[in-house]
Specification:
The complex is a heterotrimer of chains A (about 350), B (about 150) and C (about 120). Chain A is an alpha+beta fold and about 350 residues long. Chain A contains twelve helices and eight strands. A four-stranded mixed sheet of chain C has the order 1-4-3-2, covered by helices on one side. In chain C, strands 5-6 form a two-stranded parallel sheet. In chain C, about 20% of the residues lie in helices and about 30% in strands. The chains are: A alpha+beta (about 350), B alpha/beta (about 150), C alpha/beta (about 120). The structure holds iron/sulfur cluster.
């Protein structure tokens, strides 16, 4: 049987971002997939040599606009540990609040895009409508909708007033109500199930061997979540990693759906236990030595390696983003998939190409 | 009314937009997408987002141009039928933004293709993106010789 | 540094990769650091149940490091990235982008090496 080579991307209607896959097809079935990257590569790790370590916060926030807050948090945590800063507890709780809000908006965004990938446009609209509530909270509390620049080395920049806390609580109640109203559609609708169940299966062993992270790993039966490391205030909050066992696209959808509700709960916990006090401490000195920090992003585990040499410029900054780790598993999922399911499978890892290529 | 008048009327009443993400951090990207969703809903103005550049009147570009995607960008621009307008969205699309010193960044969108409307912001807000599309329509109007 | 980094040599690397794979360690990533004296540090980060272990391999820039992508397929992207950014060659890459994973043909090679950044006006 002759094989067909089909280019997929870089500008493709279902892909919000440019990635190119060269698909080798036998009939309608994918035999192999080879990625071509570089359409979003900017080389911003290198910018640490011309911007000092405070200015780099703004750069790392723009590794990815969807989880900007969490990038900055990871970066700041690294430098705080390096320079021995004792971050106030209130700041830690506030970081949890904003990072979990980011997770909610990112997952809703993804569920919408994923639904759009298999042609379920009304679900896309619904998810994005709910998501706007989170964007409103971001705008009201930080001044920007997407890139919320709240982290500084030593704490956070903005505080939440009592009125804001109550208002966030009310908004979250609505978000929860509206998300639950979509539950029957997302988890038990015939269309959703028939397009996602059994598609793009990643077995438990494969997931681990190929280095999958985040929801992709958890959907294949591993209870591994970097939040269990207890950074920020996660050690004082109650949560259980969300795990599914099937490893198909449906399981990944289910994991993310349940994580939305989990994050709503975490924001609530953080707001009720929010301690009084300072929101940031001054940090003196310059970064020196090496450090590795991990946090959990909506897409999975994020890892920063920072090397400082006692100047205001960092010697090396390396960012291992979750999608970077999830591309090899994606390449393993694609063979055997029908051409029509390729967009669904590609989106199921929640690809963030600007993260991957930096 | 002649046939051309009808076509021009349709062009200006219902512009079709194609969105290309050059090297954006996703911030501007999701704001462009947010314009399509119920809160902002550009479809009520007749603005449609489509995937095929050959059907489009307006090209919305987010993000910085880098050495690899500049050919893709040029390609997409060339495939669009005239009269066309280009909107650069976000600080990145305008000048390279925070990334302008990075080694793989060429700069703003106007280094590669002519840009008609610049929408500032990092990220640009959906309201201003919609405003940008409206401005771009004036450009199309001028190009048609109707303004 | 919050964790210990064990030093290894180039000969030990393939054996180490095999051993880690056998133990069920997940390859988190590799990091390359230019030391500025013609050598590179390659850091291998492994993870098991949220515990990281790190191995450091120092190689001269013109050496050919053994690729571990035969054992850990996941190493493929990052090894290609290092090849792009530092110009370090790997032997036995499962899929070789030839130094053009990210970079278009006209771009300078190995932009991450020291003394290569020119500040634009
Ligand atoms: S302008 Fe800002 S938000 Fe938009 S793509 Fe550039 S860095 Fe991201």
């Amino acid at each position: 049987m002759a094989r067909t080579i089909l280019p997929f991307g870089p500008q493709h209607p279902v892909l919000p971002e440019p990635i190119h896959l060269t698909l080798e097809l036998e009939d309608e079935i994918v035999v192999s997939a080879v990625p071509a990257l570089g359409y979003v590569h900017r080389g911003l790790e290198k910018l640490c040599e011309v911007r000092d370590f405070h200015q780099m916060i703004q750069i790392v926030e723009r590794v990815c606009g969807i989880c900007s807050k969490i990038h900055a948090m990871c970066y700041c945590q690294s430098l705080e540990e390096m320079m021995g800063a004792d971050v106030p507890r209130r700041a830690k709780y506030l970081r949890v609040v904003w990072s979990e809000l980011h997770r909610i908006h990112s997952h809703l965004l993804w569920i919408g895009l994923f639904a759009d990938a298999f042609g379920f446009e009304s679900l896309f609209m619904q998810c994005w409508r709910i998501r706007e509530r989170i964007m409103d909270i971001n705008e009201a509390t930080t001044g920007n909708r997407v890139v919320v620049s709240v982290n500084v080395i030593g704490g956070v920049r903005r505080d939440l007033s009592r009125e804001h806390q109550t208002w966030i609580g009310e908004q979250l109640k609505l978000v929860e109500k509206e998300v639950l109203a979509l539950k029957s559609t997302i988890v038990s609708d015939y269309t959703v199930k028939s397009r996602t169940q059994g598609v793009g299966v990643l077995t438990k062993d494969q997931a681990h061997q190929l280095g999958a992270v985040g929801p992709v790993l958890r959907a294949s039966g591993w209870a591994q979540d970097a939040r269990m490391l207890g950074y920020a205030a996660f050690d004082e909050l109650d949560f259980e990693p969300v795990v599914e066992v099937d490893g198909d696209c449906y399981a990944r959808l289910a994991v993310r759906f349940r994580e939305v509700l989990q994050s709503v709960d975490l924001v609530r916990q953080a707001l009720t236990r929010l301690p009084e006090g300072e929101i940031s401490v001054p940090v003196k000195g310059k970064p020196n030595g090496e450090i590795i920090t991990r946090v959990e992003q909506p897409r999975g585990e994020l890892m920063y390696y920072i090397k400082g040499d006692d100047t205001k410029f960092l010697d090396r900054l390396r960012i291992r983003t979750p999608t970077f780790a999830n591309i090899p598993p994606l390449l393993a999922m694609l063979p055997g998939v029908e051409l029509a399911d390729v967009p669904v499978v590609v989106l199921s890892i929640d690809p963030c190409i600007s993260c991957t290529e930096r | 009314m002649s046939l051309t008048d009808w076509i021009n009327k349709g062009r200006l009443k219902s512009p079709w937009v194609v969105h290309f993400d050059c090297g954006s951090c996703n911030g501007c990207d999701i704001e462009v997408l947010a314009c399509l969703t119920p809160l902002y809903d550009v479809e009520r103005f007749g603005i449609l987002n489509i995937g095929n550049p050959k059907h489009a009147d307006v090209l919305v570009v987010t993000g910085t141009v880098n050495h690899r995607n500049k050919t893709v960008l040029k390609n997409i621009y060339d495939q669009m039928p005239g009269p066309k307008a280009v909107i650069a969205v976000g600080a990145c699309g305008l000048s390279g933004g925070v990334f302008r010193e990075a080694y793989n960044v060429v700069g703003g969108v106007d280094k590669v293709i002519p840009v008609d409307v610049y929408v500032p912001g990092c990220p640009a807000k959906p309201e201003s993106i919609i405003d940008g599309v409206v401005k771009a329509l004036d450009v199309v109007k001028t190009k048609l010789g109707l303004a | 540094m919050n964790d210990v980094i064990t030093r290894i040599t180039m000969d030990e690397l393939p054996g180490l990769a095999q051993k880690m794979f056998g133990e069920g360690q997940r390859l988190a990533t590799l990091t390359a650091v230019d030391l500025g004296d013609g050598t590179l540090d390659l850091l291998y980060h492994f993870d098991k149940d949220l515990v990281l272990s790190h191995y450091r391999l120092t190689v001269p820039k013109d050496a050919v490091a053994p690729s571990i992508s035969g054992v850990y397929f996941a190493a493929l992207l990052v090894e290609n990235e290092i090849k792009d950014q530092f110009g370090l060659n790997f032997s036995g890459l499962a899929l070789d982008f030839g130094g053009h994973l990210y970079l278009a043909d006209e771009v300078q090679n190995a932009p991450f090496c020291k003394l290569s950044l020119t500040k634009k006006a």
